[in-house]
């Protein structure tokens, strides 16, 4: 009995859905740049900055949020928990020092030094994003769209989540929000950093994935609707502090709800062929030493050639279909009917080195799209505090929360619909 329990606990710890849920929790407090609209008024007032000086801090914040080259490079050298630890230290030092200056506990620094502190503090977010996305994309290579959309969506929603937690704590001064931004994400990341990791080559779509993603999407929609309702209620009605605490506790329960998935998958009695995670194809280093390069190319192309519906078949039937496809490819290559070409670098969806990515048009298309399209949204977020105050609103938190919620829905929806488009396009191509 104890041996079986120990085995299931180990399966729970190594479950890829547990990694995904932990990544969601990290992303829920990682989007600290979206809270800048609530931080900027107190910084402006405490340090006697004008709007131009505050805009320079906003630019430093945006650069810190965008320059993720160092985070990506370190993630190739360090284990992911090491990259997360570096990000947590940057977040703590950068925003922690800003808090000391704003509250008068440290001497005021020149504007350029304040820009560096904001850059360093917000650059920690890139480490959180990199570690969460790298681990989950490797664990869910067949569901990249939903995974990336959900994780980036929770990063956008973190502004509303942090604002609600700040409202519950009810600090006497607004500068305490800077302290919470400095300490809160660092604590969460340090607590979860050893869970965030690739746990194996899961190449196929599991039968339980459909239900699991549906449950996650349901939690996402419920969470967004709940936060919107709570935010409007707290703004329109004078809500007691006890009720605010209850609202925040319910928020935590919604955030914890996705952990039901790895618990169910690890502790429920499932058929063995469905419960055991397996690799679709053997890794190159596990293949026989006598295989020729041509054979390796053939086997590596099976993943690209096989229809997607094969992944949904039972294990025995799936292996049978894959073996048939491998045999056809080998026979066609041997008879000269198919000319097997040497693969020049990875294909789309596979891992790229930095130099391999830099010569791809896809990278530069994404780069310039983000460069040209994301500036307007960042401008609004950076100046949201001053915009709301100029319209006569003292509480800027409601606008920060509103942008976070709609940002969240847009990102999650983008991941969901992108996966549908990819599947429909693949089916149309196969039918042609």
TrEMBL record:
Topological category with respect to the lipid bilayer: Multi-pass membrane protein
Keyword entries, A-Z: Membrane, Transmembrane, Transmembrane helix
Record-level GO cellular component terms: membrane
Signal peptide: none
Subcellular location: Membrane
Pfam families: Nodulin-like
Parts of the chain that traverse the membrane: 20-43, 150-169, 175-199, 211-233, 239-261, 363-381
InterPro entries named among the record's database cross-references: MFS_trans_sf, Nodulin-like
Domain of life (superkingdom): Eukaryota
Residue intervals of the Nodulin-like domain: 16-263
Claim: Transmembrane is one of the keywords in the record: yes
UniProt-listed PANTHER family: F1C9.29 PROTEIN-RELATED, UNCHARACTERIZED NODULIN-LIKE PROTEIN
Name of protein: Nodulin-like domain-containing protein
Species assigned in the record: Gossypium raimondii
